[in-house]
Amino acid sequence: MLRIRCPHCGERDEVEFRYRGDAGRVRPASDAGLGAFNSYVFERENPRGWHLEWWLHVGGCRRLLKVSRHTVTHEIADVKDAEA
Ligand SMILES: [Zn+2]
Fold this sequence. Notes:
By secondary structure, this protein is mostly beta strands. It is 11% helix and 39% strand. The chain binds zinc ion (ZN).
């Protein structure tokens, strides 16, 4: 089980959080074309190593957090509030 250190609530179990997606994705410009939006919506990377992710603390402060997690070891290097 993951232990995530929320900057507002302290270290909590993974069950209090919901994964909300890849935090490294950038929405294409409005004139980028259908192919770029198709890729943005439907295609995902499956990285091996460090990955930036959105996690929502639904069982605590209900804040959106940006988490740097290693996808193999599940080590968490950094947790920040999304607005920080
Ligand atoms: Zn929290």
